[in-house]
Amino acid sequence: MRLTFQPAAPPAPPVRSTDDTSTQHPVQPPLAGHLLHQPDTGEPRARHPLARRPLAGGTRRAAGRAVVALLAAVGLVTLASGAAEAAASKGPFAGTGRLTVTSCPEPSLSYGGIPRTREYLTAMLKCLDKSWSAHFARNGLAFRKPEVRFYEAPERTVCGVPWPTDAAAFYCTNRGTLVFPLTGDWIEKRTDLYPLKVAAHEYGHHLQSLVGLRRHYESRIRADRAHQAELGRRYELQADCLSGVFLGGVRHSLSRTAGDWNALLEATRASGDDADYRSHGKGANRAYWLKRGYQAVSPSACDTWTAPRSRVA
Known about the structure:
313 residues, two-stranded antiparallel ribbon, 8 helices, 39% helix, 7% strand
């Protein structure tokens, strides 16, 4: 299965909510009015020894059915074809080179037993901004930092839709906004690299929007209803790979060991889909694409769109 691309239009400036003056609690992202502008399906919580509460299978199935309903609600549009587009099928990251090695000291997630999740994520997001903005500038690609919203706990709605029940964190495409709950198994009482990987994965969705990949993905699922789930996995696994690219670019400054990296691969395998509905890919494939990006340190290695189906199952 191939997805062809055209150059992305320059990103529009973000629209700020009039509620942004609040300083007491994280503000709700700007509202969305279209199904395509729901949050992405989100990073599943890890089923890992460090996770304190196992996920209920029914919850994952309900989340999967909601995604299917979302995709099915989209109309049909036929993609154009031709030699020029076929040549561009590798995507906008092809030939952009390696991510420049960046210094990114990793702060502690707690201090004296007090959680510092907001401070941790803020520091890591600055590193993500620095790394990817430099890569985009070097390749003449338009870049805009994502908006970021932190929540002390899940709320009734976010981005104008019900809060996803089975997501550790997510990206609201309508405003280019990353949403991070500051509690939950994905980040509380953890000492591994999994929270950083989750943040980098959701940031990967922002990169996909900036270069036009999301727009083409949405066009393709309109045109190819029979393969919507597979296309969704290609989209998510590319974000896994992009997270690996970032981790590979900053690994020398993280003060982590090979054991930490192996633990992250294991946690990523554990976060793979169950047998009922596969939205992000099997654990082995999630780990494969994360490792591929980590070793290549280049987004051009993240071409999930032309990968064989066995690698996106």
